[in-house]
Amino acid sequence: MSVNNTGRWAFEPAAIPSLPIRGSDALFPVHRIYCIGRNFAAHAIEMGHDPNREPPFFFQKNPDNLVTDGKFPYPDKSDDVHFEIELVVALAKGGKNIPIAQALEHVYGYGVGLDMTRRDLQGEAKKLGRPWEIGKAFDASAPCTAIIPASEIGHPANGRVWMRCDDEQRQEGDLNQMIWKVPEMISYLSDYFTLAAGDLIFTGTPAGVGAVKRGNVLVGGVDGVTELTVTVV
């Protein structure tokens, strides 16, 4: 459909949010972004919650929250912005009620992302029983790497998850410490949403999250997947 020729749209639609794919000129079009909360026991404890295996819960970021240029602009209306390093799962196909045993068949590949969080605004929302979007789904809140196809790296179930801020080690864990594993997350989400090709899942962060300030350089990664470098500007 030609937007300019048909005149169907009231104005030019926004570009489709996308991520690069390592080793390819093609782009990965992003449909939705799901993020799991408190998926590492140590992080649940540091946030003041019970680390036991309670049912998972998810929140969403917007596809246009993604940034891939290595820069994170410090947002307005917050004085306490935190980093959270995470494995990102990229889906090649979706569906509903996906069995756990078949979940990995839906994965296109993996990346590494930051769930940047306006912690002060999130905390205020929690106290008032309100949604978290103001603390989680703000502009540029999802720095992310290129997607690495699963055909190249398989489906990682183990691997160090780590983050340094200005060369100081801040976060360290392992994928095998996730309370809910990738197949379980895909299956659970598909019971409540119709998953689709292009969906991303941010899979949770280990303990050690902390505040950033302008000028900080964040370097983190998942061993066996890739690394991400982001400068706070």
UniProtKB/TrEMBL annotation:
- The reply on keyword Coiled coil is no
**What positions does the domain Fumarylacetoacetase-like C-terminal occupy?**
33-233
Which keywords appear in this protein's UniProt record, sorted alphabetically? Answer: Metal-binding
Q: Which InterPro entries match?
A: Fumarylacetoacetase-like_C, Fumarylacetoacetase_C_sf
> Superkingdom of this entry's organism?
Bacteria
Q: Mind telling me which residue stretches traverse the membrane in this protein?
A: none
Q: Write down the Pfam families for this protein, in alphabetical order.
A: FAA_hydrolase
**By its UniProt entry, which Gene3D superfamilies does this protein fall under?**
Fumarylacetoacetase-like, C-terminal domain (3.90.850.10)
Q: Name one GO molecular function term.
A: acetylpyruvate hydrolase activity
The answer on whether this UniProt entry bears the keyword Hydrolase reads no
Protein name, as recorded: Fumarylacetoacetase
What is the species listed in this Swiss-Prot or TrEMBL entry? Skermanella stibiiresistens SB22
